[in-house]
Design a protein that fits this description.
By secondary structure, the protein is α+β, with helices and mostly antiparallel strands. It has one domain: Alpha-Beta Plaits (2-Layer Sandwich), CATH 3.30.70. Helix content is 23%, strand content 42%. It contains two helices and six strands, in the order E-H-E-H-E-E-E-E. Strand 4 and strand 5 form a beta hairpin. The protein starts with a strand and ends in a 12-residue tail after the last strand. The model has no long low-confidence stretch (mean pLDDT 93).
């Protein structure tokens, strides 16, 4: 099982990356901060200063359909915000 599921690429996280050298990742629910730090350092070849994690509970969503009201839940996930040491950066668009 991989620790890092995917990077979080939003306007807010892009601004954090440019200003504070922070990058976000969706990670495995069972991963801890040490495992996340090791995975980011190994995958991107950077030095990690700190890791902050957040657990998100899936929201309940409803929508009207022709067959009536459909109720569902968005998947829950865990997000990690990784602060890199000065001088290091991650370019998510390099392989495109």
């Amino acid at each position: 099982m991989s620790i890092i599921v995917k990077p979080v690429i939003t306007e807010k996280m892009t601004a954090q990356g440019e200003k504070h050298n922070r990058f976000g990742f969706v990670v495995a629910k069972t991963a801890n901060k040490v495992q996340i730090k090791d995975a980011v350092e190994k995958l991107y070849g950077v030095s990690v200063e700190s890791v902050n994690t957040q657990n998100y509970v899936g929201k309940v969503k409803t929508r009207n359909t022709t067959r009536g009201l459909a109720i569902g839940r968005v998947n829950k996930h865990k997000k990690a915000v990784v602060t890199l040491k000065a001088g290091d950066t991650i370019d998510f668009y390099a392989g495109i």
